[in-house]
Amino acid sequence: MTNMTEEIQKNLKTELDKYKQVQKDFHKALSQRQQLDGQLNENIAVKKELDLLKSEDDVFKLIGPVLIKQDVEEAKQNVAKRMEYISSELKRVEELITTLDKKQDTHRETLEKYQQMFQQAQIKASFSQPKA
């Protein structure tokens, strides 16, 4: 193989490694989003239940193996804060997914260019070799 072909092949491998890493990060972010969606839905269900209660009703919070009595308003505030935090994390993960998706596209395009260059270099090399 010629030096040019080897150089293209090396660049192709490097780009492929970068692409695989971005893919891995993308799938990890998708998994995070799914987990956060689940947590948000869980908290929405808890909020709906808490909204049905009167201020004098009893609410208990599980802390380790123990149920601790909690004020209804305090429980509502905690759930609201949790939902706010989860929503902001969801927004951050959505932005990350968008960024990683664009990076995947860029790496794919670069990979295609290197593959074309590699094929062209191989064709040139086969024509320039002396005939036996």
UniProtKB/TrEMBL annotation:
A Pfam family matched in the record: Prefoldin_2
SUPFAM superfamilies, A to Z: Prefoldin
A single MF term (Gene Ontology): unfolded protein binding
DNA-binding is among the record's keywords: no
GO cellular component: cytoplasm; prefoldin complex
Keyword terms, alphabetized: Chaperone
GO biological process: chaperone-mediated protein complex assembly; protein folding
Similarity comment: Belongs to the prefoldin subunit beta family.
Subunit (UniProt): Heterohexamer of two PFD-alpha type and four PFD-beta type subunits.
Name of this protein: Probable prefoldin subunit 6
Annotated organism of origin: Apis cerana cerana (Oriental honeybee)
